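Appendix B. Chain record.
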Amino acid sequence: MNKEDYLKPLVDERGRELLPCRIVPSPMEGVMTDLFCRTMIELKLTDCWISPFIRISNAVPGIKSLKGKIRRFTESGLPLTVQIMGNDPSFMAGTAKELASLGVKGININLACPSKTVLKNNSGGALLKKIPLMKEIITAVKDGAGGLPVSVKIRSGFSSISETPLILDALLEVAPAYVIFHFRTVAEEYEDVPDGLKRTYRAVKFFGEIPLIASGDIFSVADASSTIAATGCAGLAAGRGLLKNPFLIREILESLDSEKIFQEKSHEEKAALFFMKTLDLARENPSRYWNRSSIIESARNLWGVEHPFFKKLLSMTDKEILASLKDLF
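Structure tokens predicted for this chain:
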């Protein structure tokens, strides 16, 4: 693929659109708050969304509940793929059907989450060691989704990368529209992995015609470039890198566009711009957006706990933070 191909929608061999953009924000539970998403939207930092998982436990959620869970994304008007997670094929299929009626662009199944609570409930990454159930869920969701693209997010294995071929073979049998592939195993969680790109490359080659979106350790434009060059992936899903640099997706897209000269802003400039917009939104609509812990968490992600600004922020009252936006910097 040429660099410019990454600026185009992801389509299948028939030309059906699977994903409106190839450089996407990876779904992140607990991070993609209402305020974070609104700030990303206001600054035009993404062109589409893949939501964090909606947990499907004992029943199919009602339409009103589903609308509420995806409201922060649908309000943007940007194309939305909704991630769902559970272990009951019929409930998962029913949820896909309800979501399709709400006009979402696709369904993604979480087979990657390493949370101990999730694993205990036999969901997320736990399904990588329950291959028959995993296949049954994917098939059921495809049936329920009414023709929408159904994709999966996986890791390279549960305990070991020796499991990768078995998992990939099973996925080839049920043919998801595309695969978001995080190169770590579930057991590795977020440990440093020296051969991550090699794992991704092998998965790309194994899947052949099924597009693979690479995920894991994309913290910079350089990381994105090396991942594309080393793996030949069909796209990128940036996760934790967005927390420190919310401009990352936009920067990657600009670096791939031969008609633009990519000039990266300083980290301090980007962090201040994002945080100022966050505070502007909180001040304009405090009943919806003001949440001190979310504001503090955003600053911690942007600057780190040792930065003088973060330490200053901790000592300020809510009123001081909202009243002196420009004086903060």
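Further analysis of this model is presented in Appendix C.
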